[in-house]
UniProtKB/TrEMBL annotation, chains A, B:
Database matches in InterPro entries: CinA, CinA-like_C, CinA_C, CinA_KH, Competence-induced_CinA, MoaB/Mog-like_dom_sf, MoaB/Mog_dom
HAMAP family xrefs: CinA_B
Residues covered by the MoaB/Mog domain: 4-172
Protein family: Belongs to the CinA family.
Protein name as it appears in the record: CinA-like protein
UniProt cross-references to CDD domains, sorted A to Z: cinA
SUPFAM superfamilies linked: CinA-like, Molybdenum cofactor biosynthesis proteins
C-alpha cells in the first residue's frame, strides 16, 4: 500500500510558486510510515488531470491532491475527480452554511461563485477547512482506493492535514511503525565544522543522524524508527544528549524552538525584561520576539531608530559620537542599547546598527558590517562586531543580524 | 511538442529538500515557449524510474531529468535511462580527464567511485558541468525524443542549463515563441469577488488571465505568447490597463511590487516621511518598510510599544484612555499615531494595536480585532477597525495588520 502526491495548478507549471506542499506532505507521509514513491504536478486541465488520476490510481492506493479547490472557473480538481469515477457532484448544505458564516464574520456577503466550493462527489466526506472557504474531501470512489483533496494554500492545507487526515489515516492502521525525528539547532558554527565534530554519529542506522543547513543555522536531525512514539523517543534521547554536549554553547534548541523563544524562556524564568533599539533591522528583531505568544511577559518594546535624528532624540545617542564614529559603530550600538534600556526601564537593552546593503557600503564599513549592543543588568554594556559578508542579500544580512543579537543575549545570560 | 520535468531523488520523497529545480526549469521552459504539462518526482529506484520514463516518453517529446548523477551507488539516472532504451553505456575519456583535472585543482586524487560519472549512453552528447564533477547529457535515443540530464545541485544545474541546454534548444528552433507573464496585485478584495468583476477576461486565449490567491492578497496573472518579448508586452499592456481600471483602488502594484515598496514610492515622490507605532505587530511593519533598499529616504523609524507603559512614556498615550477604552481601541490607535508622528517629526504617523492571539481575546475584543491609526499631513487623525477573524493564526493576523496599515496609508494618499 502506498500513496501518491498530486499537485494541481498551472502556476506550478509556470514556475510562479515553489511546490512547498509536496515537501510538507512528503514529510508527513514519512512520519506516518506511509510509503510514497511518486509526486506528480499537472495544470488546471481536466483531460490531463484525468490521465494523471488514471496512472496514479493504477499504481497506488492513496491519492493526495492539493490545489484547484478555489471558487474560480479554472479550479477543477473536485469535479474532474468525480467525473473520472463517473459520480455526480452534490451540493453540501453544511459547506454553504460554513462559507456564509465565514464571510459574515468579516462583514462580507458570500459571492455566488463560492457556491461552487460546496459541490462534492456523492458519498464523499467533507474535510473541514477551519481557516479558509475551500473544504477538502476524503472519498473512497472504489474499494481499496482513498482520495484526499486539500486547497493549495499551504497554511490551510497544513491545518486540515493535522486536524482530519492524520486521525483518519491512523484509524486505518497507519502510523503503527512510525518515524520520529528531532531536529537539534545550532547557531554560530558552520555545517562542515559541526559535521566533523559529530562524524562518528553520521553512520548510525537507527536512529540516523544527518546534518543540514538552515537559514544561517545548522541542524542535526535525529530520526528513529519504532513501533510507537515512546520507543522512538527512547532511541533518540541518549544520542540527543551526546550531540548537545558536543555542541556546547552553539546548541540552542530543538524542533520548534527559535532563538526568540529560547531567549524568551530564559528571561521569563528569571523575571527579567527586554527592550530593543533597531537601526538596519528596522523592527525585525522586535517582530521575531513578538512572534512568540506571551512575549509581552518579558518584552516591553523598543525604538526603531532608522534615521539618525531618532537615535539622538529617542535614545540619547550623542550627536558628536554619531559624527565621529558614524551610525555603524560599536560606540553608537552601545549608546542605543543603554538608551533603550533606560528609557523603557527594562533589565536588558539590545541594539543593532549596520550596513544591510545593497548600497551604502564603504571600504572601511562594507555591506554586512553590523554592530550589536547589549546593555545588561549590572549596568554593563558590551558590543559585538559582525561581518556577514558583502555578497549576502539585504534580507539575509537583516535576518542574521537579528538572530545574532538574540544569540549574544542567550550566551551572555547563560555564562553569567 | 512539449516537455516533462522528471526529478529523481529519494530525498525529495522524504521531504528533506524543497524541489526548487522544478520551479527553475518550469520558469525557463516558459521563457523559451516550450509547453510543459507535467512534472514527476520519483526516487532512486530503477524499476519505478523506468515506469516514469515509459509514461513520459509516450506523452512528451523532451524529457528533462535532474538528480541521480552523483558518484554513489544510489545515483542511477543515467544507467537506468540507457537500460530503458536498450543502449550500452560507454566510458568517456573526456569526462575522466575533466574530473581528474578538477580533483587535481583542489589537490586531491579522483576517487574510484567518480569513474562511474564518466559512463554515458552510446551516442549521447556530453553536457559539461563547469562547477561540479557530474556531467549531464543531451541524447536522442530515438527520433522525435530528446533527453537532457542534469545534476541535482541547483547552482550546477542552473549554469549548465544556461550554458548548453538553452543554446541547443534555440538551435532546434525553440525560443521563437516565448511566454511573458505579468502579475497584477490587489489588496482589500477577495479572490472570488475579483474573479467575478473580471470574469469576461478569464476566457481570453492570448493573453490568458488567471486569478490566484496570495498571502492575504489576490493576483491576476496575465500571460502572453508571442515571437518576442516586445510583442508579448504589447499583448499584455491593453489588458493590464483594463484590469487595473476595473480593480480601481484595490489594485496596488505588479510583479515585484509590495505594499511597502508602493507606499515608499508615493512618499518619495512627494518628499513626505513616515514613522510607525506598533503594538501587536511588534516591529513587523517597520521591518516590511525597511526591507526596501533606500527606505531611509522616507522612513524615519518608530516605537514598538508592546507594553502599555511604553505607549504612555514614549508615545504620550493618555493612561486614563488606556484605562477606559483599553489598549486595543480606536482612541489608543489614534493617540499612538499622533504621538509617533509628533515625536519623530514626520509627515505621517501610522499605528497598529490589536489582539493577535492565540490567547487574549474576549467577547467584545476577539482575537483578530485590530485598530489602525493614521495621523496625516493636515494634522488629521483617523482610525480603522479590522476584524481578521479569530480562527486565523497569530502570524497571519500580524501579517494582515501590517499590510492593511500600509494599504490604508496608500489609499489615503491616493484619495487626498
Amino acid at each position: 500500500m502506498s500513496a501518491e502526491i498530486i499537485c494541481v495548478g498551472t502556476e506550478l507549471l509556470l514556475g510562479d510558486i515553489l511546490n512547498s506542499n509536496a515537501q510538507f506532505l512528503a514529510q508527513q507521509l514519512a512520519q506516518l510510515g506511509i510509503p510514497h514513491y511518486y509526486q506528480t504536478v499537472v495544470g488546471d486541465n481536466p483531460q490531463r488531470l484525468k490521465q494523471v488520476i488514471d496512472i496514479a490510481a493504477s499504481r497506488v492506493q492513496i491519492l493526495i491532491f492539493t490545489g484547484g479547490l478555489g471558487p474560480t472557473p479554472d479550479d477543477l480538481t473536485c469535479e474532474t475527480i468525480a467525473d473520472f469515477f463517473g459520480v455526480p457532484l452534490v451540493e453540501s448544505a453544511e459547506i454553504i452554511e460554513d462559507i456564509t458564516a465565514k464571510f459574515a464574520q468579516r462583514g462580507r456577503v458570500m459571492s455566488p461563485s463560492n457556491r461552487k466550493q460546496a459541490l462534492i462527489p456523492q458519498g464523499a466526506e467533507i474535510l473541514p477547512n477551519p481557516t479558509g472557504t475551500a473544504p477538502g474531501i476524503i472519498w473512497q470512489p472504489r474499494p481499496g482506493l482513498t482520495i484526499f483533496t486539500f486547497p493549495g494554500v499551504p497554511s490551510e492545507m497544513h491545518r486540515m492535514w493535522s486536524d482530519t487526515a492524520v486521525p483518519f489515516l491512523k484509524s486505518q492502521g497507519w502510523g503503527k511503525e512510525i518515524i520520529c525525528s528531532r531536529s537539534l539547532k545550532f547557531w554560530g558554527i558552520g555545517e562542515s565544522a559541526l559535521a566533523e565534530k559529530v562524524s562518528a554519529y553520521l553512520n548510525l542506522l537507527n536512529p540516523t543522524v544527518a546534518p543540514y543547513a538552515g537559514k544561517g543555522e545548522v541542524r542535526l536531525r535525529i530520526s528513529a524508527k519504532a513501533s510507537n512514539t515512546k520507543a522512538a523517543e527512547e532511541l533518540i534521547a541518549p544520542i540527543e544528549k551526546q550531540l548537545r554536549e558536543i555542541g556546547g554553547l552553539d546548541y540552542y534548541g530543538a524542533d520548534d524552538d527559535t532563538l526568540a523563544s529560547v531567549v524568551g524562556e530564559l528571561l521569563r524564568s528569571s523575571g527579567e525584561t527586554l527592550s530593543v533599539a533597531e537601526s538596519c533591522t528596522g523592527g525585525g528583531l522586535g517582530q521575531m520576539l513578538t512572534e512568540i505568544p506571551g512575549s509581552s511577559d518579558y518584552f516591553w518594546g523598543g525604538v526603531i531608530s532608522y534615521d539618525n535624528s531618532v537615535k539622538v532624540r529617542l535614545l540619547g545617542v550623542k550627536p558628536e559620537d554619531l559624527e565621529q564614529f558614524g551610525a555603524v559603530s560599536a560606540t553608537v550600538a552601545e549608546q542605543m542599547a543603554i538608551g533603550v534600556k533606560n528609557r523603557l526601564k527594562t533589565t536588558w537593552g539590545l541594539s543593532i546598527t549596520g550596513v544591510a546593503g545593497p548600497s551604502g557600503g564603504t571600504d572601511t564599513k562594507p555591506v554586512g558590517l553590523v554592530y550589536i549592543g547589549l546593555a545588561g543588568s549590572a549596568d554593563e554594556v558590551r558590543s559585538y562586531e559582525c561581518r556577514f559578508g558583502a555578497m549576502q542579500t539585504r534580507s539575509f544580512i537583516r535576518h542574521l543580524s537579528a538572530c545574532t543579537a538574540l544569540d549574544n543575549l542567550r550566551r551572555t545570560w547563560l555564562i553569567c
